[in-house]
Amino acid sequence: MATKASRSAARIMMAPAVVLLLGWMLIPLSLTVIFSFKKFLPLRGDRITDRGEGFGDFMWEYVRGFPTLDWVGFENFSRFVGSSSFWPSVWTTLVIVGGVLAITVVLGILLSLLLDQPMWGQGVVRILVIAPFFVMPTVSALVWKNMFMDPVNGLFAHLWRFFGAEPVAWLSEASMGSIVMIVSWQWLPFATLILLTAIQSLDSEQLEAAEMDGAGPLQRFGHIILPHLGRAITIVILIQTIFLLSIFAEIFVTTGGAFGTRTLTYLIFQRVLESQNVGLGSAGGVYAIILANIVAIFLMRIVGKNLDA
Amino acid sequence: MARAVTTQRKTLTTALAWGVGLLIFFPILWTILTSFKTEAQAIANPPIFLNFDWTLENYAIVQERSDYMRFLWNSVILAGGSTLLGIIIAVPAAWSMAFVPSKRTKDILLWMLSTKMLPAVGVLYPIYLLFIELGLLDSRAGLVIVLMLINLPIIVWMLYTYFREIPGEILEAARMDGATLKEELLYILTPMAIPGIASTVLLNFILAWNEAFWTLNLTAVDAAPLTAFIASYSSPEGLFFAKLSAASTMAIAPILILGWFSQKQLVRGLTFGAVK
């Protein structure tokens, strides 16, 4: 049993991590919430302090709720939702997240089933399949954009011409499909790896018994493998959703939000840093945080249950 | 009992799996090959696969034009620094949660995880503003701290799941023999924890190396790592496929190699122990 002394030692050892994460969460979050109820246009002269520039001044204004900025109630929230770019950005986000999830989960299941079969050079194939996950987002996006999807010199253009077809300007004419394809390539390894790990934990005797009882491959898949994978699939979906909701670099370096690829994340980024309408962008940020939290609650339940086991 | 597999079937699976594997790996392979071509060969139609004059000049040009080494060094500092700092802060926390659990341990762990779910864009301006106020914009110190904080929940979680696998009986036996807390930590726990810590370091180094939201938004010149350097290729000038490939190859090669060592830890680290 832990003694009293070791308990207080434990508390002290935990303190730095807890305090840091608490600060990391509360300070920026409270700033976002405050700004979302303010008119704050730095480029039009709105200042958070009318005195010095020091950090002490900043903290003083922060504690007092930035009195130099006007409160505007829920105006930013209604204007963010009311703007003509809001619903398209929600739709774009849903299509990208949904499209990538569908592709990575379905192909991930097929790939993990394939990789689980006995074969020569299994280790090497695994490495080949996993590799895209380790490529940094800016590299994978630019490699796809230029060397594959370039309408003049890209490999796809060469391929299309070879078959006598007119090359496609992928990132402007089929922008959404192109982005979904790039992001799916990045995330397929993750889904495959997790599903493969789950498949390998399946009791092979159960499968053999089913086979002896005359169950065909499809029946074995539907009645044994798929139910066994249920939890892993849920986890893949939840974790990927959280990461996919905030993809940024892939859009930043390919279309820059043009051609209907402006996601909610990208819209907020543009409001906040490009047009510097901080109040409006912060209201968008609050929406994004709420959205992510809805997904997070489901994920935490599963992870939490696993902790008890 | 293993099922008997016919050679014919095994050959077929092997061919199929290798085909799919090479297809998925192809963009990386193509990037590496292109980095050794001239610009003219890089865009040639029909595409040239292997029968070209291999050249290293793209690597020389990339380094010469943009001081590639500086970006590389920034990446090393940011990924290494944030991982090291994270480990120093997380090891004691994970240790105490694994070996001196209390009623609140589970809540604390889940709460830490929830901070990881916070969408970065939701706090972009506050962090940007704090960086300006503290003079941290485009500084390596500021980014080391941010990258450490975004990965801290994963580090704590991974270490926690590894530490929990260390049998508690060993600690109790040591305590019975009169080991002090310091001795317990130094001679018993540390040696048993090293493999877990190493895996955690590896995965978090990779995650920090590839992080491309904060590194793009909070750096300009001085602290810009490879993610930002590669992003500068999004506005092309003239023929640049071979040079883009050379820059990309250099940016991903170290991580591909590290990544291959960390496949197993990847599952544990990114599912927070929910899939093992």
TrEMBL record, chain A:
It holds the Pfam family BPD_transp_1. It is found in: Cell membrane. CDD domains: TM_PBP2. The chain crosses the membrane at residues 12-37, 90-115, 127-144, 179-199, 232-259, 279-303. Signal peptide: none annotated. It comes from the Bacteria. One of its GO terms (biological process) is transmembrane transport. One of its GO terms (cellular component) is plasma membrane. It is a multi-pass membrane protein. Belongs to the binding-protein-dependent transport system permease family. This is Sugar ABC transporter permease.
